[in-house]
Amino acid sequence: MSTHDVRFDVIAAGFSGDESTARQGLHHEDALVRASAIRALHRMQHIAADELRAALHDTESEVRRTAVECAVSFPDVEVHHLLNDTNIFVAEMAAWCLGERAVTEIELDALIHATTTHPEAVVREASAAALGSIGEERGLPAILIACNDKPAVRRRAILALAPFEGEDVRLALENALSDRDWQVRQNAEILISPRGEDHEE
């Protein structure tokens, strides 16, 4: 049977409830089959935390990324170390995952660190968004720093200010109204309007 056929069977197993076929795919030599097996088992709600933990250490980035995505419903499966993954899309997914679930102090610290120091803008952007989703005051200073980052990061950072109040937040939004990037300006306008604050064009 070709790898394509095996992957098709594994994907189909996720919809038909064939746990045995899906689980066999976890150990296939092809990374896409392994990733599909994780998704299939997750769809059936039969993926185990230990299976996700093992997949987080897979040599292939697609498998790690899939495992991180599915770990969003497994808060006991640690993913914060993958903010430093060699593949930026795995790191980006780790930030998203943390922003979608309850986090520990260590995980919050990791997001703060990634928002302000990660060498890849896409990871800083995702980490800032995650801090906004979490809404923990301790993450606010990092978001404010991100408001002065590259355009894509600034856009997400401005939106991440939504759950916060205070003079620093107000000033950041006011400054964003004159940002050279129109999407940053637009995002600031979106946030300012519901707050009942007037501003001039």
From TrEMBL:
This is Unannotated protein. InterPro entries: ARM-like, ARM-type_fold, PBS_lyase_HEAT. PANTHER family: DEOXYHYPUSINE HYDROXYLASE (PTHR12697:SF5), PBS LYASE HEAT-LIKE PROTEIN (PTHR12697). One of its GO terms (molecular function) is oxidoreductase activity.
